[in-house]
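Dear support,

I submitted the protein below through the web form. The confirmation email said the job was done, but the results page showed an empty box. After a refresh the structure appeared. I'm attaching both so you can tell me whether what I see now is the final result or a partial one.
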Amino acid sequence: MANTDLILKLYEIGAVKFGEFKLKSGIVSPIYIDLRVIISFPPVLKEVSQLIWNVCKFNGVKCDNVCGVPYTALPIATCISVENDVPMVIKRKEAKDYGTKKMIEGVFKQGESCLIIEDVVTTGSSVRETAECLREHGLQVDDAIVLLDRDQGGRGALVKHGIRLFNAFTLPEVLDVLLKADKIKAPIVQEAKNFLSANSIDQTKGVKMFERQGKGDEMEKVYDLTKRPIRTYRERAALCKNRISAKLMLIMEEKKTNLCLSADVDSAVEMLELAESVGPYICCIKTHVDTLSHFDISVMIRLQQLAQKHNFVVFEDRKFADIGNTVKSQVSGGVYRIAEWADIINAHVLPGPGVLKGLQAGAKLVDSELGCLLIAQMSTKGNLLNEMYTKECVKMAGDFDEFVVGFISTSRVSSNPSHLHFSPGVKLQPDTDSMGQQYLTPAEVICNRGSDIIIVGRGILTSSNRIHAARSFRDAGWNAYLSRPKC
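What the results page shows now:
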């Protein structure tokens, strides 16, 4: 391999050791990579830095700043910064109790991108901790580069936190080089590889989906979403029977965003201001029209004008759940006249198919091309939507395939590529609030659970810079989508 000479140099200077070593994760390993020694060998330090930067360029990684994970990666980051004229910031391991008391040293602007540089990755925890601190200080972190990936699941763990990890080489590659150069014997290589295999983080998460078999019952299948090929949104749009779902998929592909803003505000003025300011970064805005302190149909007409201007769709989160005749009136008339301005609505299937027949009839009354999402799963703790309910939900979607565009769910529940999956309760870090709402990361929702669209409310609304927050969620969601396999 091209890095053979550098791997041999690292072995010769004692950066690669064999024996029994306790890692940061607590695991005892038969092999240890100690890159702290490279500071005593300037030519090796320079070669390591050049290789890492070349890997970044090869993969199209761009950044406004670099940050080395303290402490071993600091000299590597410094070399990269100086040699390539890229600004650098430093994350402290602990804040000073005097002076500025900063955790991040350096000069940077809010919203700038920062590339994390690391020497070795096992579980990815050090990179994650560094990313969390940088993000808290307003920097955008999407990528990290490591000299050596121990190949124990760190890459997959970081994807869950919206971080793509690139490496110069992996530990199995190092072992193969040293064996070929007769630096170590085959039993040592086998012991090390057995260890790596036995101590990898399992990132495979099977997600149960339901597959329609003609007019009969749905067949249950468990898919490994880390290996399951998927179509692009543009390809899926061609399969849609509902115009709104096709439109939304094309918007997502064109704008490169799978972010739905949950505009949970009580002021119509604030809702419109939100639509104007974050509209360029979203594919959909979710409203709760009945929470607005003042309602006038002109407000929703203005919202649709903004949707046309910024190219997103309007989703009224009404959660219809009554008999057909009632929901027909609710969606087409009343004070809110929802079918006149909404592109998408949603419904519980608890009342049976009548609720969808009523909503469909109401849409036709006002000549609306509404699409409907079925609530198949919920993100609140203790909710009663069990697997049987989800299965019936998917079955009903198949019976109304020209009206139902997908699902509100915490994971992919349907194998039908024309169905969109919206997942609520998304933050950049996992969390639970005082009322039982459970938050997942964009990477967890998109990569591991197979959803299509992240619904974000408080993560943007409570931010002091809503535009920056929207951009961060847009980037995290889209990067997670890009990291899924494509056919």
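Response: this is the final, complete result; the empty box was a page-load delay. The first strand starts at residue 16 and ends at 22.
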